[in-house]
Design the sequence.
């Protein structure tokens, strides 16, 4: 069973590898020892980075005006179109792993249908080639959809889910409702994020520590009168007064860019001026599996990054979420933790500290609730995942049914 994955960035972040490792666990359940994942990724090839992932990645340049010749013919350690096609030809199935699709906050320029289809090719390059050129089965992994008020996002959603994706899965009820409305179709799978299947191991030395997942993305969406960095800094002061050690866990950490690490450094600087020490997990030097192990071994997580929150909840760690998208609320709901959510509109230091105090007071009860919900969350992912990666041809059924 050869699975091609695409439309995901596995480098300098936790989310991409979490999804890949979740998919790896799913395939282990369905095709034990009889599958292979090949990841195709657009963009920079950080050749010196050891990601620790059990799959090979081939890099290619995106088909933009600037890089079109490199996309067609390859360049240095990036493959060209001919090599991409030869790889995709081996696939039994192609899985698009992009996390938030057809969303006005991320894209929404107006144009015409010709431009829209060109933009679709740029956004979903491997999926389009796999379906239109090579007639492969292409599925859309669990993702968030919308809001899609712009004409482009509605058009893109309808085209991609009608002509390219053989099966579509949503990771929230609201996302499923949005995409079903555009398609006038209710046959959309619903399941939590596949990263909920990512395994973990307990790491010694983390007992009693608080992990705080910070986000540069939420700064762009922030609507509260009190700045995000100030809210997190004040929360860390609260934990310090409670004699609890704080470790800040960035998610995105690309060098030479404003990332979660930049936000973490601002918070640490604020606290240092008042004699409060916090550590920052050196995520750029760590494999995603090691990062999840750290999160899974902490006492409590305060998270502003989606896959950091998934990592915590899926390993039984009580979590307060500060979010900007409905995906955060529905994630907490899956684990029976809806009351531990603060939106970027209403979050203040006072509310955040009060919530942290309440969670600590009810810690054992909430931890037990999370652990109690976890089997059902994973069962939902496995059930939808089986439907996504099932191959319907008789040849494939005969080939894999006895494995």
Sequence:
């Amino acid at each position: 069973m050869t699975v091609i994955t695409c439309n995901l960035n596995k480098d300098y972040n936790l989310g991409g590898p979490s999804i890949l490792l979740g998919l790896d666990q799913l395939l282990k359940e369905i095709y034990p020892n009889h599958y292979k994942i090949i990841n195709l990724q657009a963009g920079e090839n950080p050749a010196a980075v050891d990601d620790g992932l059990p799959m090979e990645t081939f890099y290619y340049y995106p088909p933009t005006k600037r890089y079109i010749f490199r996309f067609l013919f390859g360049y240095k350690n990036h493959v060209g179109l001919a090599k991409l096609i030869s790889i995709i030809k081996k696939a039994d199935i192609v899985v698009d792993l992009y996390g938030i699709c057809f969303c006005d906050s991320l894209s929404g320029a107006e144009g015409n249908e010709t431009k829209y289809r060109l933009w679709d090719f740029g956004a979903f390059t491997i999926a389009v080639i796999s379906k239109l050129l090579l007639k492969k089965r292409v599925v859309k992994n669990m993702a968030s959809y919308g809001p899609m008020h712009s004409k482009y996002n509605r058009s893109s959603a309808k085209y991609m889910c009608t002509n390219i994706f053989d099966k579509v899965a949503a990771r929230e009820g609201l996302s499923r409702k949005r995409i079903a409305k555009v398609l006038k179709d209710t046959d959309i799978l619903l399941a939590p994020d596949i990263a909920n299947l990512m395994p973990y191991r307990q790491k010694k030395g983390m007992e009693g520590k608080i992990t705080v997942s910070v986000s540069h993305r939420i700064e762009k969406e922030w609507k509260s009168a009190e700045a995000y960095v100030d809210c997190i800094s004040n929360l860390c002061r609260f934990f310090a007064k409670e004699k609890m050690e704080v470790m800040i866990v960035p998610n995105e950490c690309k060098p030479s860019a404003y990332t979660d690490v930049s936000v973490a450094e601002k918070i640490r600087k604020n606290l240092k001026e008042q004699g409060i020490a916090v550590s920052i997990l050196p995520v750029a030097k760590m494999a995603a599996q090691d990062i999840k192990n750290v999160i899974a071994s902490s006492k409590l997580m305060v998270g502003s990054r989606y896959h950091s929150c998934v990592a915590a909840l899926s390993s039984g760690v009580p979590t307060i979420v500060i979010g900007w998208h409905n995906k955060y609320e529905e994630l907490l709901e899956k684990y029976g933790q809806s009351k531990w959510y603060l939106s970027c509109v209403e979050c203040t230091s006072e509310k955040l500290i009060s919530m942290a105090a309440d969670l600590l007071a009810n810690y054992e009860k909430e931890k037990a609730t999370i652990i109690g919900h976890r089997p059902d969350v994973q069962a939902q992912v496995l059930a939808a995942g089986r439907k996504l990666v099932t191959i319907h041809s008789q040849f494939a059924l005969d080939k894999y049914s006895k494995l």
About this structure: Confidence is low (pLDDT under 50) at residues 393-398. The first strand starts at residue 2 and ends at 6. The two ends are 10 Å apart (CA to CA). The CA atoms of residues 204 and 297 lie 8 Å apart.
